[in-house]
Specification:
Layout: H1 2-22, H2 26-45
Helix pairs in contact: 1-2
């Protein structure tokens, strides 16, 4: 289950990264959002 969540977040990360390259203003919002995803992964990992 953890592996499935990892690949799902990785796919989301890749999609948003490509989108942020097209729209640089999204990058400002993506930085704290990526940190929030990392905290979720650490919380679910425990």
């Amino acid at each position: 289950m953890v592996t499935y969540d990892y690949y799902r977040y990785f796919y989301l990360y890749r999609e948003v990264t490509v989108f942020s390259n097209a729209y640089p203003c999204i990058e400002i919002l993506w930085v704290p959002f990526s940190i929030f995803l990392v905290l979720i992964l650490q919380f679910k990992g425990t």
